[in-house]
């Protein structure tokens, strides 16, 4: 087992079967070695720096119906909202003052925000905050639309692939959503020059170790700049209301493995991790993550952007409490920096 990890640390490639073996192993020693290697690898690129992103959840309208997601179109109980342009810009203003140099515009696939409206918004943000990076996380669009937004000034794009296993993808999404389309979006984004993030949930219904091994294999071949990984958490008003939550332990192991596969990857300790475990954020960092994405949305938006039950937006998850986050990171030996935090 140890030799597999040595090989991964040196070569950044394993077979599907080897990934599966590492994921299934219950050896306590292995866990320690894995986290140490991940920490060492991250330090080679990013030292002890932790990058922060101000997350602006600007709309929870969504035309899609993903079975796991609390803001799916079919959830009639969700209180829908959209921030105005002025509200979004004032989030950025607040964030800038707090020391954020990356803003992430995240939302459902909301047809109200037409490609042109988004492009105007992107231009305005980049004009006002030329020293900041702008990340979009607004789902699947055509290459032409992605190109327009890139030309408007967007720097990065987050689009989790959700699962790299075709059959598993079918079980998480209605039939009009296709893994091929999602992957094509990721290829288009990369080709257009975005820093691109893919990712997946851990412990989503019907997921097997083989599915997760495929996720790792996909990441190995796609070479993303960022990877978002968090445990699945059930939402009471979705078809998966009664499904069990994902495991924090397995999520940490996957973070560490991704760090070894793509050594310079930007890897967030996600909100979902912080939601399931009190010190989830810190555990994520210690397993190889190097990014935190606290919430910059206005209060009313935070309450309604409920992707899953009990989603955190207070404490370390709140952009305003960056000092608190700074202290917590300091305690475990890391420094939150005021920086765009590009992929090295
Ligand atoms: N549990 C955990 N993560 C979820 N997401 C959506 N719904 C859930 C859930 N119930 C994740 C998806 C999506 C990202 C924005 O949030 O992976 O890509």
Report on the architecture of this protein:
With 344 residues, this protein is of the alpha/beta class. The protein is built from 14 helices and nine strands. The strands form two sheets. A six-stranded parallel beta sheet has the order 2-3-4-5-6-7. A three-stranded parallel beta sheet has the order 8-1-9. The longest helix has 19 residues, at 28-46. The radius of gyration is 19 Å and the shape is globular. 5'-deoxyadenosine is lined by residues 68-69, 160, 162, 201, 230, 232-233, 235, 272, 307-308.
Largest β sheet strand count, sense and barrel closure:
6 strands, parallel
Number of helices: 14
Number of strands: 9
* End-to-end Cα distance: 30 Å
Overall pLDDT = 96
Unreliable spans: none
General shape: globular
- SSE string: HHHEEHEHEHEHHEHEHHHEHHE
The computed structural class is: alpha/beta
Percent strand:
5-15%
Which hetero compounds are present in the coordinates?
5'-deoxyadenosine
**Strands ordered across the widest β-sheet:** 2-3-4-5-6-7
Radius of gyration over all CA atoms, rounded: 19 Å
How much helicity do the residues have? 40-55%
């Amino acid at each position: 087992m140890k030799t597999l990890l040595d090989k991964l640390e040196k070569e950044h490639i394993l077979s599907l079967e080897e990934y599966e073996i590492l994921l299934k192993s219950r050896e306590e020693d292995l866990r320690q070695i894995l986290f140490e290697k991940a920490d060492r690898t991250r330090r080679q690129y990013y030292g002890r720096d932790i990058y922060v992103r101000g997350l602006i959840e600007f709309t929870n309208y969504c035309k899609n119906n993903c079975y796991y997601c609390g803001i799916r179109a079919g959830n009639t109980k969700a209180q829908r909202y959209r921030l105005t342009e002025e509200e979004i810009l004032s989030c950025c203003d607040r964030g800038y003052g707090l020391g954020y140099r990356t803003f992430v515009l995240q939302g459902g696939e909301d047809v109200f925000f037409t490609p042109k409206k988004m492009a105007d918004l992107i231009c305005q943000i980049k004009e006002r905050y030329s020293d900041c990076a702008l990340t979009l996380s607004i789902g699947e669009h055509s290459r032409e639309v992605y190109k327009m937004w890139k030309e408007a000034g967007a720097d990065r794009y987050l689009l989790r692939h959700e699962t790299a296993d075709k059959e598993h993808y079918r079980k998480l999404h209605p039939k009009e959503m296709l893994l091929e389309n999602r992957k094509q979006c990721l290829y288009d984004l990369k080709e257009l020059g975005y820093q691109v993030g893919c990712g997946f949930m851990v412990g989503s219904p019907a997921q097997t170790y083989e599915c997760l091994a495929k996720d790792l294999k996909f990441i190995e071949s796609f070479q993303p700049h960022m990877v978002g990984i968090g445990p699945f958490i059930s939402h009471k008003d979705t078809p998966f209301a009664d499904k069990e939550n994902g495991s924090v332990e397995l999520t940490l192991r996957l973070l560490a493995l991704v760090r070894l596969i793509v050594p310079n990857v930007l890897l967030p300790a996600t909100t979902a991790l912080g939601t399931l475990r009190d010190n989830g954020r810190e555990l994520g960092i210690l397993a190889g993550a190097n990014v935190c994405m606290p919430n910059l949305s206005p209060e009313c938006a935070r309450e309604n952007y409920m992707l899953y039950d009990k989603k955190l937006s207070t404490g370390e998850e709140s952009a305003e409490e960056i000092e608190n986050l700074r202290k917590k990171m300091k305690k475990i030996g890391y420094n939150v920096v005021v920086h765009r935090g590009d992929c090295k």
